[in-house]
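Supplementary Note 3. Input sequence used for the single-chain structure prediction.
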Amino acid sequence: MYIPHHYKNENITEVKDFLRKNSFGILVNQVAGKPWATHIPLELETTDDGQDVLVSHISKANPQWRHFAENDKVLCIFNGPHSYISSSWYKEEEVPTWNYIAVHVYGRIKILPEAAVLASMHRLVDKYEQNSENPISLDQLSEKTLRQVKGVVGFQITINSIQAAYKLSQGRKADHPKIIAELEKTENPLSRDIANRMKE
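The predicted structure, written as discrete structure tokens, is reproduced below.
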């Protein structure tokens, strides 16, 4: 991903926190010589030996997984908040732009055995049910329902590289108060989130 130097976020602790909180991403690889993308939760985890990995699963009906073996290099894309930035908010004339947060993760993918897939599903459900009023657990589901696990392919991506772009009007510090004020006026929660990120 092309990232101008002043938009790079090299604070890996902050970026990992972003990945944990924004885990719904896009898995990209090559299928029959063409780019293929699937939108899925990709959970950041750490293996027993300290390696950062992404863990997820896709339907066996999705042909994407059949091409993991021939080329195990994949890209995972994660999007954060974004917002249009009007140049009418600047002190000097300039073109409008867009502020955003995006993270690209590159790695190598391998298919997991069924027991590991089921364990990852337990972790996934437990993570997102913890704030529910009536949380469910996979332990509560019948064997018949859990047989659906046989219809998915689980995988683990060993992370080789993480690239993070945090474009937050870094080159326009003098305009920040006005930009933030205008973003906060909107009804768009993404714009307001960008305003909060700029305050940080």
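The beta strands are 24-31, 34-41, 43-46, 52-59, 73-85, 97-111, 152-167. Residues 5-172 form a domain with the Pnp Oxidase; Chain A fold (CATH 2.30.110.10).
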